């Protein structure tokens, strides 16, 4: 079952993106390098609870 998660910027802590993931295949927190429009650069975005 896919669940909706929110990705937050590691620098400014703003929640910029939403996506889905399969908790059975990926039980750990998701981490991606994505563009943050407030930092104006690519930063690490982590899954928030």
Structure in words:
This protein is mostly beta strands and 49 residues long. The chain has a single domain (1-46), classed as Rubrerythrin, domain 2 (Single Sheet), CATH 2.20.28. Helix content is 0%, strand content 61%. It is built from no helices and four strands. It has strands spanning 2-9, 15-22, 31-36, 41-48. It has a four-stranded antiparallel sheet with strand order 2-1-4-3, with no helix packed on it. Strand 1 and strand 2 (15-22) form a beta hairpin. It is elongated, with a radius of gyration of 11 Å. The model has no long low-confidence stretch (mean pLDDT 95).
Summed up:
With 49 residues, the protein is mostly beta strands. The protein contains no helices and four strands.
Strand content: over 45%
Radius of gyration: 11 Å
CATH-scheme architecture: Single Sheet
Distance between the termini: 17 Å
Q: What average pLDDT do the residues reach?
A: 95
By CATH, the topology is: Rubrerythrin, domain 2
Q: Give a count of the beta strands, DSSP E runs of length 2 or more.
A: 4
Tally of individual helices: 0
Largest sheet: 4 strands, antiparallel
Strand order of the largest sheet: 2-1-4-3
* SSE order, one letter for each helix or strand: EEEE
The percentage helix is under 10%
CATH class: Mainly Beta
Protein name: Large ribosomal subunit protein bL33
InterPro entries: Ribosomal_bL33, Ribosomal_bL33_CS, Ribosomal_bL33_sf, Ribosomal_zn-bd
GO biological process, one term: translation
Pfam family, one: Ribosomal_L33
């Amino acid at each position: 079952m896919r669940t909706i998660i929110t990705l937050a910027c590691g620098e400014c802590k703003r929640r910029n993106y939403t996506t889905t993931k399969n908790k059975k295949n990926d039980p750990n927190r998701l981490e991606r390098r994505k563009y943050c429009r407030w930092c104006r650069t690519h930063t690490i975005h982590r899954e928030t609870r």
